[in-house]
Amino acid sequence: MHAPYPALRLRRTRATAWSRRLHAENVLTPADLIWPLFVTEGEGVEEPIVTLPGVSRWSVDRIVASAREARDLGITCLALFPNTQKERRSDDGAEALNPDNLMCRAIRAIKQAVPDIGVLTDVALDPYTAHGHDGIVDDAGYVLNDRTIELLIGQSLNQAEAGADIIAPSDMMDGRVGLIREALEGGGHVNVQIMAYAAKYASAFYGPFRDAVGSRGLLKGDKTTYQMNPANREEALREVALDLAEGADSVMVKPGLPYLDIVREVKDAFAVPVFAYQVSGEYAMIEAAVAAGAADRDAMVLETLLAFKRAGCSGVLTYHALHAARLLAR
Ligand SMILES: NCC(=O)CCC(=O)O
Ligand SMILES: [Mg+2]
């Protein structure tokens, strides 16, 4: 067969800026961005996180100011993570159930001051446990599934009562989405969404996050008995199918860039809202490349975030959210 060239030239539509824009198949907007924020005790406090240059832990009053700034830039949702004081951590993570814990105070303050931005809250015990695991650990160090779920239900209700809009269980216990949904319905929280961390991998990319929430030095062992093996893709589809059947409104894949193949497969297989988390190690890699003079931050941020859209994401959790929203506002 004769090649279509020269009649067909794909470079023709790329020849001018207006035409490239016209033919763009995907677009990144501030509405696609979920901004993770770390909360700490005190007032007027900003604590820079060394392994996440440019990211800080903020006290509740500073978080509220950030929420306002994010809303004004068109960011749709915040994700909150508490840096729980060491003396409030325990083996069972009971601080997660305290209606006046740092997380609940931050949720209430944001929803009161900036009601038109969404608040997503992480459900897992690692910011509250003395051992840094996401659940209750037995004598052999195994994280107990069903015992842990009992606490996750209480944690979810606690966050919903404080005003959380989206409950995001990141613990990877089996069966927790259905039981949390049932408890939310029973508690009258019928419009509180669940975004399930459905395919969360046991990844080397979470290191700086553990510094941020103060669990790095505490964690004994690793999370491979509950988070997924990076080798697996069929298992991710099973995880997603179960969470959807149990009532998840949307699902998440985590980490982000190294797992975009999973995002695309989930999107194609289920046609549901899929989100991904560009995690702390991914952020740190970009910042390290910029610091080394090896990369242009603005271009890299926008390109990586657009790649999530192309892979099928409805939105992305990213520590670069504010920076990206400012770039998009230009
Ligand atoms: N459950 C939330 C996380 O584990 C975040 C990980 C990261 O940003 O590295
Ligand atoms: Mg699961």
CATH C-level label: Alpha Beta
Q: Tell me the helix content.
A: 25-40%
CA-based shape: globular
CATH topology: TIM Barrel
Structure, explained:
It is an enzyme of class 4 (lyase). It catalyses: 2 5-aminolevulinate = porphobilinogen + 2 H2O + H(+). Pathway: Porphyrin-containing compound metabolism; protoporphyrin-IX biosynthesis; coproporphyrinogen-III from 5-aminolevulinate: step 1/4. By secondary structure, the protein is an alpha/beta fold. It has one domain: TIM Barrel. It is built from eleven helices and ten strands. The chain is globular, with a radius of gyration of 20 Å. 5-azanyl-4-oxidanylidene-pentanoic acid binds next to helix 9.
Topology of this protein?
Blueprint: H1 17-22, E1 33-39, E2 46-48, E3 56-58, H2 60-72, E4 77-82, H3 102-113, E5 118-123, H4 145-162, E6 166-169, H5 176-186, E7 193-200, H6 207-212, H7 234-245, E8 250-254, H8 260-270, E9 274-278, H9 280-291, H10 297-311, E10 315-318, H11 321-329
Parallel strand pairs: 1-3, 1-4, 1-10, 4-5, 5-6, 6-7, 7-8, 8-9, 9-10
Antiparallel strand pairs: 2-3
The chain binds 5-azanyl-4-oxidanylidene-pentanoic acid and magnesium ion.
5-azanyl-4-oxidanylidene-pentanoic acid (FVT) is lined by residues 122, 124, 170, 205-206, 209, 279-281.
